[in-house]
Amino acid sequence: MKLVDKCLIVENSEIQENIFRMKILSPQMCSIARAGQFLHIKCGGNKHALLRRPISLSYRLAGEDTLVIVYRVEGQGTQFLSEQKPGVKIDVMGPLGRGFAVDQEYGRVVLVGGGMGVAPLAELARVYGNKCTALLGYRSEPFLTREIGAEAGKLLVATEDGSEGHRGFVTDLLPRELSEQTIDLVYCCGPRPMMKRVLDICRTHGVRCQLSLEERMGCGIGACLVCSCATRDKNGNPGYSRVCVDGPVFWDDEVMLDG
Amino acid sequence: MDNVNLEVDIAGLKLKNPVITASGTFGFGKEYGEFYDISRLGAIVVKGLTLNPRLGNPPPRVAETPAGMINSVGLQNPGVDRFLEDELPGLLDKGVCVIANINGNTIEDYCRMMEKLDRSGVSAVELNLSCPNVKEGGMAFGVEPEMVCAATREVRTAGEKPLIVKLSPNVKDIVEIALAAQEGGADALSLINTLLVMDIDIKTRRPTLANIFGGLSGPAVKPVALRMVYQVCGAVGIPVIGMGGISDWRDAVQFLLAGARAVAVGTANFVNPYAPLEIIDGIERYLTETGFSSVNDIIGNISVTSGQ
Fold first, then answer.
1. Cβ–Cβ gap B62/A218 under 8 Å
2. pTM of the predicted protein model
3. Which is nearest to A133 in space by CA: A146, A120, A149?
4. pLDDT tens digit sequence for A100-130
5. Same-domain check for residues A146 and A73
6. From B207's CA, which of A155, B91, B143, B182 has a CA 20 to 30 Å away?
7. From the list A45, A215, A229, which residue is nearest B271 (CB)?
8. Which domain CATH number covers B132?
9. Which H or E element spans position A144?
10. Is A242 on the interface with B (CB under 8 A)?
11. Are residues A106 and A179 in the same domain?
12. Domains in chain A: how many in total?
C-alpha cells in the first residue's frame, strides 16, 4: 500500500532569497525513498492551491528519519509551503515515481545540475560518495554546494555571472570530465536547454545519461494522464509517458526533449 | 450504523453505496488500488475508451485555477480491445462494479464499442457525448438534442447493458438534452462533464494548454453542477448520477438532496486519494444523525417553498 501521511515539519528555512530547505519527519518514507523520487505535497487544498505539488527529494537524513526538500517559491503552492512553520504537519504522499537507476558497480559517475535541478542530485552524491563528480550550475549565488561537496569526490561550480567558480554554463565543464576518464553514467537535472546540451555532449562521448524531467501534475500516481511528456518506446516509436510514474527520471534514449 | 442502508439501484444496476469514481480521474483502478480496497466503492467509471488507441493531446495538459483544475488530456487510452484484454480481468477480480465510458467519432464507433462491452464483464456503459478535449469527438453529438436522441437510440439497440448518457454542461439548455437522451432510450444520465474553458500564460503570451481549450473541474464547478443536476432531476424520469466538484460528504449529500441517485467523485481523488471512502462514511454518518434509515430517503428530499 502506498503512503499518505501527515508529517511533521522539522525545519523550513530560507537558504537563499526565495529558496527554502524543508526537513520533514517520516521514518517510513525515509526508509524507502530513493534518489530521484518525489513527494506530492498538499499545499492548502481547496483553500489555497487545489492540486498537490510534486517536489523532488533532495536528500535523506537516515539517522534522523528525515526527508529534505529544497524548493523555490514560484506560485501559490510553494508560497503556502514556505509559510509553514516547524512543528506543524503537512500532508505528504510518497515517495513517488521512478528515481535514478543506481548501480554500485559503477566506477565513476557525473552529476550535472542546473538551478533547482541541483536539488535531486544531492541524494545521489550521498549514494556514490567519492565515485561521483558533481557539476553544479547557477545563474548567480550557489546553494547545496556544501552538502553535495561534503559527499562527492569532486565538485565544480559554474555561475552565469561569474560570482563563483567557472563563469558560464555548467555544460561547459562536462566535455572535459567525460574525456579525462571513463564515466559509467551521467545523471542530469535542470532546465530543458541545459539537459538537451548535456544529452548532446553525452552522445558525442558515448556515455549513457539519465535525466530527471519536470511537469505539472494532477494525481501524481499515474491515473489522470495530465503530466505527459513525449518519449520513444523500446522500438523507437513516439508516444507519451507519465512523468509521475514512468519518470520523473528517464533514460537518454527514451526522452524527446524537443517534443 | 448497521441499520443504515446505502444501496441504490441505477436502472437495475445495484450499487452497494452511491459513491462512484468519475471517468478520467481513476485510470483503470490500479493506481488507487494501491491505497485501498476499491471494492468498497459503489462503482468505478474507467478512463474514457475509444474504438482504437489514442495518444491524447500534446503537453502541457493541465493548469490550475482558484479551486479548480483544467485538463486537456484528449482521451489518451489503449482502445477498447486492449482494455478488455489487459485491464478488465484484473479489475473484475477485485470485485468492483465496473462502468465503461465510451467515446467515438461516429455513431458507428459507439455502437461497435457497445457490442464489444455488452459481451464483457462490465456492469454498465457510460456514453460520453460530451468530451470537450477532442476536436472531432463526442462534443459534436452532445450539443444538439436531435443528435443526442439519435445517438442514444442507436447505441441502445447495440447492446443490453444499462446505458448511462453523460451530459455536457456546455449547451444552451441541459434539460432539453437530458430529455432527448431519455427519449432515445437512456437508462440513466450522468452530469456534468467538465466546463469548456481556457487559461493564458502572461509571461509567454500563449495559452497555458497546448490544446488551447480544456475542461474545468474541481470545487469551482460545484454550484453549476448542482444547479444542473437539480434541474435535470426535476425534468426526467430516469436515475441521475450527479458529479462536478464533489470534494467531501457534504457536497455529496447536496447532490443526493438535489435528486441524484448516486454521485461521482473526480478531481478530489487527486487531492485526497481516500476522498471516495471518506464520502461513503460521511453519508452514512449523516443518515444516522438525521434519523434516515436509507440513502433513498434523502434522494430529491429538499423542500422548495418558493421559486424553482
1. yes
2. 0.94
3. A149
4. 999 999 999 999 999 999 999 999 999 999 9
5. no
6. B143
7. A45
8. 3.20.20.70
9. none
10. no
11. yes
12. 3
